[in-house]
Structures are given as structure tokens and as C-alpha cells.
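ok so I'm stuck.
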Amino acid sequence: MSAPVRTAPRRIAAGPSILPGVASARFDLRPVYEPLIFLVLTSAAYFAMPPNMQYILGIAVIYALLTTSLSVLFGWTGTYTFGHAAFFGMGAYAAALLKDQAWGPLTFLGVSAAVAAVAAVVIGLIGRRLAKVEFAMLTMIVGQIAYLLTFRVPELEGDNGIYGIPRGEIAGVDLAPPETFWWYSVIVVAVVMGLLRRINLSSFGESLSAIRDDPVKAAAIGIPVNALRLAAFTLAGAVAGLAGGLFAQQGSIVTPSTLSFTFSGQIIIMALLGGMTRFWGPAVGAILFQFINALVFGNTPHATLVLGAILLAVVLVFPSGVLGVLSRLRGLLSRGRRTR
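replied:
not stuck anymore, here's the structure
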């Protein structure tokens, strides 16, 4: 008699899912321990640095959140935008205009995120039928309009900006001291990054990846492409606005530079430097960008031009970014150990 044929056991789905295999993401601990590692490493570096470097790192972790919000569009969804700084600036100006309100600092961040999210919904609905490049141009135009409004609307104070934005206090703890504000900002960033990581590993994130890879096939298997693109654009705008509100609290001043097209380009460079296709790549790129800019090119009159040229060369040689290179090196090392 022939041996019985063994068949693989059937996997019973735990619940409805847009794409197969995403149910396991519910038990993934990466959204918990990865932000904790980020918090511990950045905090250890912060307290080991002199005050001037602490200031740079304080801005860098806020930019880490901003560049991750851009990755929701570029890396997760394949949606291009050249005006992402507009949402960052809208969030910052929202916090600045409401500075006299007797609200807690977290409430200001919520308002900043809400204002940017509403703007993202409006822009997303206007451009929902545009192609990738056309939509990117629309975002650039909107960003330029927002930038020019800071010089046309008297309440926005033009080049002078809006200053005197309070840091406030939480549960009676004053956030004005630099060390206290560091813990507040890095915890906020870590929590939001953890939420984004959870979204990235969920069925929603898997669906966005399917849209990025092939929107036609994604629509064919029942994924609502336009609706999810709008949701991703809204999420990215809200997180960028929250980062803008945190930036306003950190510096106590907001200027039109937060809305400029140049800053939008810098955000893209930061994300590409770290690696757009990896979740933590944009955050790493933002931190590296700030320190390279401050330590190497901070005293030259053409710092932005020189830094941009060097980073462009890095991106062309290593398109997967810093994390991609490190991952490749790790793979080569592990392969070499196996062959011994």
C-alpha cells in the first residue's frame, strides 16, 4: 500500500482581512519596542551632548516625525507631494495663533493636527482624479499659496513671524526647562511613531503597499484605491501638522520658512537619506541631516547648496538610504559566516 498523502492543515482566518497574511500583524510587538528603543537611544544621546547639540537633537526628533509622515505618502502609498511643508507650517501657525488660549500643550497639538488634517482632506478631494505628477504639482502650488499668505494676512506677521508661544505645563509640571521639554517632545514623538508603526503593520498599511505596487491590481481585488489614498493623505497631513505644533512649542516662534518650498525639498532629502522604503529610515535620515548640516556645513555661506549636492550623490549611489546600506552589509556578513 502506498503511504498516505499528507496535506498541509488549512488556516482558518481569524477575521475579515483585506489582504491575506495580515492577521499576524495584530500580535506584532514592533510598534511597542521599536519606539522605546528610539526613545532610549535619543535620550541617552541628548543627555551626553553639550547644550548646543541638545538643541539640534530636539529639533531633529521633531523632524523625524515629520519625515515619517511624508513616508506615509512616498514610501507606503506611492503618492508624490512637493508641498508637504505646508501641513507642518499650518500646524505650527495654528498653535501660534491660539497661543493666548488657556489650553494644555497636548490640546494645542490636537488642534494643529486637526487643522492640517482638514486641509489635507480638502486638497485630497480636489486632486483625487489627478495623476501622480499632476497631484504633486497641486501640492506644491498649495504650499506656495500658504507661504505667500503669511505675507498678505496681517495676523500672520510676515517675516517677523509669531513669537511668544508658551510651552505650558502638564499635570503641574512646567515644560519651559529644556530637559523637561525634551522628555515631553520625545515621548510625544515616540507614541505617535508607535501608532504609525501599528498602522503600517495593519491591513490598512498592507493595502497601501498594494496600491503603491500596482493600483490596478489592488482595485481588481476590491481595495478602494481612491478612498485609501485620501485616508493616507489625511493621516500624513495630520501627523505633519502635529509635528508643526510641537515645533512651535519647542522654538516659541513660527516664521514663513516652515511653509517654504525649500523646506519641502529638505524633507524629501531627509527621508531619502535614511531610506524611504523602511519605516525608520526617514527618522534616521532626519536626525543625520540635522547634524551633518550643523557640524559640517553650518558655517559656510552656501551650506544648503553644498549639502544638497552631497546628499543627492549619496541618494544616487545608495538609493535604499542609510538603513538599506546597513541592512545589505548585515546580510553580507551573515552570509559570510554561513559559508565558513
